Every structure is written in structure tokens, then in C-alpha cells.
Amino acid sequence: MRHAQKQLLTVHDINFIYETKGKKLKRAVRKFRRKINLADYVSYISQFACEDTEKHFHVTLPKRVIYNGVTDLSAMADAASLPVNLPDRFLLHISSLRAKKNVHLLVEMMDYLPEQNLLIAGNWEGSYGKMLQQKIAQSKFGNIYMLPNVTESEKAALYAACRAFLFPSLCEGFGLPPIEAMKLGKPVFLSTLTSLPEIGGRAAFYWDDLVPESMADVLRKQLELFDSNPSYVGELKQNASRFDWDECVEHYIEYYLDIINRGRVDDGLNR
């Protein structure tokens, strides 16, 4: 890359700022600064990622925000089968099950929702996953189900079958799973942190207070609202349509061409 005439750096997030400490953080900061110093142009996958990076690293390069595309899993869901031994109706969370995903709040929330079931899928092998298993074993109503990492087709089937998708994350540069669920017309419940309000838009439901009892109240009321308004499904799909791979590709091609043409103009001025 050092020998390229022009360099475009795409930034997905700078979550290492929040997730690491001490020497590990210092190394990550140095590594990222080297990349920024090599770049001539930058793109970001969300407005939040742009603002967060500029705030912490004072980046002043020419920039564009280009959203990632998100694949519509509807066709895959129609052909897929659900994992066995699941309840007929369930709330869903899928993630890497790391601390920043805030999944323990969902586990605690289910003590206030005895009429609901929660299915959590992800990697249970880390320290956070093992802590979650202990909390689930101590839960009041036995209404929480665990699945390991699922295949793409199983994930599609779970989205299609779930009552709602829950994502109280603390830190997201984009937030892929909520959009995947929205593309299947499923209501999503999100935290109001980082990029999630940007990608969820007005179609998502939000937890203003990440307190388990109040989260349960919000979920119960908003699900009733969702059930009483059939137009919500269309609003969810319309919001999710903003994240399209064809549009993403077109925006990058436009950016590449502008960079090339700008370089030609600069070369002409320097002759």
C-alpha cells in the first residue's frame, strides 16, 4: 500500500477504543494512526463511525459515508429448517456473546416476562458466555434457551420464526443483525447507543433505559403496538432497504472514479 499513488481507507469502527486498555490499547491506537497517516481518502460505514473516528483521531481527510449492504435472507429462510426442541414462539438474540453486547440484561429482563421465551445463539466458550450460562441456570422461569453458533440458513430460519429481535448493544459501528431481522419484517428492540439509532431509524423500538424491569415494560407495550398495526412490517422492510449491496457497490465505484479524476486534475496543475 505504501507504493500506491492514492489510498482509500474504509473504517468500520474504532471499537478498540472502548474494548481494550493499557498496553493493548496503545498498540491498537498506534496501528490505526499508521493506517490513517498512509491514507489520502477515507470512507465510513456509518455516520456514527465517521464522527467517532474524527472525534478521537482528528481525521481531516476527504471522506464519504457509504453504508454496507445487507443480504435479504427471506429466500434462505423459506428453504431452511429450525433447530429442534425450540418453543413455538420466542424472542431472539444472536451475537458473538461478548460483554459489549449486553446480553446479561436480556437474561435478567426475562424474570419480568414469564409469558415470553428468549432464544440466545452465539459462542458460549468465552468468559462472558460462561457467565451468561450461570445466570440462565439461576433464572426464575426456565424461559431462556441456548443455541451454539448457528449456520447462515439456521440464522435465516430463526429470524423468520422469532417474535422479535433484541439487541441492547453498547458499541456498534454498524449493527448487521437488526437489519437482517428487519428485512424479514421482524420488530427489533435496540439500545440508543452508538450507531444503532442511525441504522434502526424510526422503524425500530428503543430502550432508553437499560434496566431489566423497564426493558420488559417497553418490550411488552411495543409488541402490543406492533401487533395492532399491520403497516409496521412494511416500515421495517422499507428502512432495511436502505442497506443494499448494489447501491453500496455503486457508491464505491463513484468514489473511486472521483478519486481518480481528482488525481488527474492535481497532476495537470502540477505540470
Report on the architecture of this protein.
- The chain has 271 residues and is of the alpha/beta class.
- The chain has 2 domains: 8-69 and 244-270, no CATH class; 74-240, Rossmann fold (3-Layer(aba) Sandwich).
- It is 49% helix and 13% strand.
- The protein has 12 helices and 9 strands.
- The protein has helices spanning 16-19, 22-38, 47-57, 74-79, 103-109, 127-137, 152-161, 176-183, 196-200, 212-228, 231-240, 245-270; strands at 8-11, 41-44, 63-65, 91-94, 118-121, 144-147, 164-167, 188-191, 205-207.
- The chain has a 6-stranded parallel β-sheet with strand order 6-5-4-7-8-9, sandwiched between helices. It has a 3-stranded parallel β-sheet with strand order 1-2-3, sandwiched between helices.
- Helix 5 (103-109) packs across helix 10 (212-228) and helix 8 crosses helix 11.
- The protein is globular.
- The two termini are 25 Å apart.
